Recover the amino acids of this structure.
């Protein structure tokens, strides 16, 4: 009977995680992020991005867990080639954790490396797979616990969008659907925000606008490939070769575009919803 009840609770948790109304931050601003986040827009990430992740994790010897569940493969080993970028960045202590079974995501053995980790990295793929496996489970709770003790969570592409409270492109049917009922809640490492990726490469400059129109208190952040924001507290620094596109910020957009852009080295205050540095062209 206890096993049956436990199974029903797991199923109920999964259903709630996929159908609950997304967390919407108050108009006053985005709450400060706990710990540190590295949120990247996909594509090839340079040493200026990966180096920041390594430093925030504590250096090359830091224990880091990689969760590649957004990808299509059913099995990922510790020799998976997707780890090469992290190894090239200097990380030596990598552990892979992957499952499609929510019961395993609740187990002591699965979450054990997360309890010791100083960093977690989410590679790309489809973010709905992360929701199906981990939303509302002990694994998700351990990720928040890692941030609470000052760790860093990073991710690229799907691994970027899953970090926000409102998750875009979560539809199982395909990644061209921006708002997908039932798959709109991310892990909420950064709240009151919707995050898109591959913006310029896939002509997605306007895709966040319907999201912030429907949810006026949301801040929309779109990232180019090869570009990340490094977030601590309410401070988001742009790192990399592309742009950050901000929808629904306090700073008025110029011309016909409903967004403002920031480049490498510029800082955006998530709470005040405005840049705190001058545009690069004005420096």
């Amino acid at each position: 009977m206890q096993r049956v009840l436990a199974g029903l609770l797991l199923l109920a948790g999964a259903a709630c995680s996929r159908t609950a109304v997304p967390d919407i931050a108050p108009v006053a601003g985005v709450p400060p992020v706990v710990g540190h986040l590295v949120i990247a827009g996909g594509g090839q990430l340079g040493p200026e991005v990966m180096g920041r992740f390594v430093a925030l994790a504590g250096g090359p010897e830091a224990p880091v867990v990689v969760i590649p569940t957004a990808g299509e493969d059913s099995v990922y080993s510790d020799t998976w080639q997707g780890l090469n970028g992290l190894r090239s960045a200097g990380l030596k202590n990598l552990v892979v954790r992957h499952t499609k079974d929510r019961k395993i995501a609740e187990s002591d053995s699965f979450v054990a490396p997360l309890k010791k980790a100083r960093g977690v990295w989410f590679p790309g793929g489809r973010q709905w797979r992360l929701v199906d496996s981990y939303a509302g489970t002990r694994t998700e709770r351990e990720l928040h616990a890692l941030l609470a003790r000052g760790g860093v969570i990073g991710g690229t592409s799907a691994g970027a969008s899953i970090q926000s409270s409102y998750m875009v492109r979560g539809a199982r049917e395909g990644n061209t659907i921006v708002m997908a009922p039932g798959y709109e809640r991310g892990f909420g490492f950064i709240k009151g925000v919707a995050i898109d990726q591959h913006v310029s490469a896939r002509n997605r400059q306007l895709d966040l606008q319907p999201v912030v129109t429907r949810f006026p208190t949301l801040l929309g952040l779109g990232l180019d490939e090869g570009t990340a924001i490094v977030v601590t507290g309410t401070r988001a620094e742009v790192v990399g070769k592309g742009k950050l596109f901000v929808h629904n910020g306090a700073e008025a957009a110029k011309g016909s575009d409903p967004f403002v852009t920031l480049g490498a080295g510029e800082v955006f205050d998530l709470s005040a919803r405005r840049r705190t540095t001058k545009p690069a062209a004005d420096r």
Remarks:
- The chain is about 25% helix and 25% strand.
- The radius of gyration is 18 Å.
- The chain has one domain: 29-282.
- Residues 1-22 have pLDDT under 50 and may be disordered.
